[in-house]
Amino acid sequence: MSDVLGAAIISGSIYALISLGFALGFRVSGVFNLAYGGLLVAAGYANYAFAVLLGLPTWLSIPISILLISGIGFAIEGYGVPFAKKVGLTSLDIMVLTWLLLVVMQDLVIIIFSSTSIYMGSQDVTTGLTFLGTHITSIQFAIMGLTFAGASVLFVISRFTASGREVTAVGDNVALATICGINVKRVIALNAVAASLLAAGAGVLLTYEDRLEPTLGMRFSIIAIVATLVGIRLGPGGAVLGAYAFGLLESVVLYLVDPGLRDSVVYFCLLAAVTVTYRRKLISDVG
Amino acid sequence: MVGFTAYVMQMAVGGALIALALSVYIDGIGYTVFHLIGISGFAAYAYTLLTLSGNWSVSAALAGGILVGAIAGWLCSECLRPLRGDGLTLASFGIGVGLFELLRFIPLTGGVFGIAGVPQFGVGEPIPTLIVTVVFLIVGAVVATFWRRSLGGAIVRSIRQDEWAALSIGARVEGHQRFTGAFAGALAAAGGIYSGATTGFIEPRDFQPTNLLIPLAATILACGKTPLGVLGSLFAIVFFFQAVRFIGQDPTTAGPVSEIIVAVLVAAILVIVRVRKQVMPHGQ
Fold first, then answer.
1. CA-to-CA distance for B198 and B126, rounded, in angstroms?
2. Identity of the residue in B82, B93, B167 whose CB atom sits nearest the CB atom of A275
């Protein structure tokens, strides 16, 4: 049982790191940006290209990759999504468009890197600490620390600062926020910058923790959606809670049920999370 | 049929049946769904297992596979009925990929390696296979057209536009929605079975959501026009897709390149159609 808990904490931290940026973007736009996972993958591959293929030092390749990919993320969240809404596209249209964008990003990575999977971490995974019967490496510690710090900062900003309340206001009702004198464009832009930086940072960090493949983008997007929907009532920081809950469920399936069912769980969780969150009253319920 | 042309034709007809299923669902319920590709895989495996393990005849297994698809379609539509908009599409994605992942996992389906030696409709001979292909295509198009022009089709469209108004004039809302789900499931099943039973081999990868890209492109390109419009669009896209692969020579780059072109094309059409406020291809 301690194995399950230990694994749940590690995978929950990774999923929380993946989900934070998505939750932040979703809080303002209300759009399921499926291209989000593609950004994570692209950030990982960009870092690989700069560090391994071009031979740049890590201290230079990481910030360049993060800036490059967060620029693309900002263009999507900060300009693309608001523009699409402005011209009359529905949330569903935008979601389908982001799926198509994900397909394009995925194919570009496949073409450029010839479908190669990448891993940037150390071959030495023995150093670290044993916690709850599970071995935790230094990079996993870093992920846990970053997740905790990110969630805490998000919680404090969203609850106790004027900027956080502005984000909540714009997310809830753009028209009302505009009437109240909030600079909506500025809020959307700043939120998009933060979400994109988190996505790119998470993508780069992931390559040091696990092997990354070009086709993993959709899986990352779905995990972020599930975590966000589970913790939706607690604001963007609630995604962390959702990620840990999902990590626990996945570890239970992995250790106690059947490892082969691990991927199915992700997608059936998506079905459950969406149904519970968006279930409308049926005619039969009304009578 | 042999060679590249046969392969393209088989791919086009399998995709066409799934595109028809998608257009039926969008026409009746109003939203894009991804689970139909999973259902087509489920039915294809049902057909394969019934023939190989159950020793059913090809025609009986075909009927059984389509029935499995219809039941799966009904069950999925029942799960999705409380949802609308992007929530419905996202949940359908959860079912579709969940089914795909299950197919990859269950030992009965041969896992990621798939199953070879799937009994073929035309016993692998060119002329019988061509006849089966034409029959599948014509039956699919006729059934979808008949449904679209029928009273049931008109009622389900009116339900899509306003459930409460339809209920007030006595329409059996739930029954029609369930039937639409089952009907779309049966058409998708026919597409999956056709693909498996003409190529003689199936693997879970054939039924992953990215494979819905071309049927979805065809449906959006047809802008809610008749099933013939959907079929015409699909054939145009498939032949374009394969022409790029054929001209590109290198399959490792030609495949992704053609996928990028189709994705950009779909996105452009979707935006143009929605901005011009023409017929709604999906969503209200």
1. 10
2. B82
pLDDT tens, residue by residue, A24-46: 899 898 899 999 999 999 999 99
Chain A residues with CB-CB distance to B175 below 8 A: none
Chunked mean pLDDT (size 10), chain B, 284 residues: 71 90 89 90 93 91 95 92 88 87 82 85 74 89 91 88 83 88 95 89 85 86 78 86 76 82 88 70 46
| A113-166 residue pLDDT tens | 988 899 988 766 565 677 666 677 888 888 888 888 888 888 888 888 888 888
Give per-residue burial for A126-159: e unless 16+ CB within 10 Å, then b.
eeeeebeebebbebbeebbebbeebbeebbebbe
Window A:32-91, CB contacts with B under 8 Å: 32, 84, 87-91
Count of residues making up chain A? 287
Q: How far B5 CA lies from chain A's nearest CA (Å)?
A: 25
Rg over CA atoms, chain A: 19
- Give me the residue from B93, B259, B283 closest to A90, CB to CB: B283
Give yes or no for a contact between B93 and B212, defined as CB atoms under 8 angstroms apart. no
pLDDT at residue B123, as a whole number:
61
Q: In chain B, which residues have their Cβ closer than 8 Å to the Cβ of A89?
A: 271, 274-275
- Per-residue pLDDT band for A52 (boundaries 50, 70, 90) equals very high
Residues in B 25-84 with any Cβ partner in A closer than 8 A? 31-32, 79, 81-84
- Asked whether the beta carbons of residue B105 and residue A93 sit closer than 8 angstroms, the reply is no
A131 pairs with which residues across the strands?
Answer: A134
Task: Tell me the pLDDT tens digit for each residue of A208-241.
Answer: 888 899 989 998 999 999 999 988 777 667 888 8
Which residue in B209, B252, B270 is closest to A96 by CB distance? B270
Place of tokens 């769980």: A265
Residues in chain B: 284
Taken in order A168, A170, A172, A173, the sign of the CA dihedral is positive
Q: Would you call A268 and B213 a contact, using CB atoms and an 8 Å cutoff?
A: no
> CATH assignment of A2-286, given 1.20.1070, 1.10.3110, 3.10.450, 1.10.3470?
1.10.3470
Q: Do A96 and B282 touch (CB under 8 A)?
A: yes
In the predicted model, is pLDDT for residue A287 greater than 60? no
**A281 pLDDT exceeds 70?**
no
Structure token pair of residue A180:
């109240």
C-alpha gyration radius of chain B: 18
Torsion over CA: A33, A34, A40, A46 (sign): negative
Q: Which residues of B touch A110 (CB under 8 A)?
A: 256
Alpha-carbon distance of A225 to A32, in angstroms, equals 7
Q: Does A287 touch chain B (CB under 8 A)?
A: no
Provide the residue type at B34 as one letter: F
* pTM, to two decimals: 0.88
Q: Which one of A95, A104, A280 has the shortest CB-CB distance to B82?
A: A280
Check if B143 contacts A (Cβ < 8 Å).
no
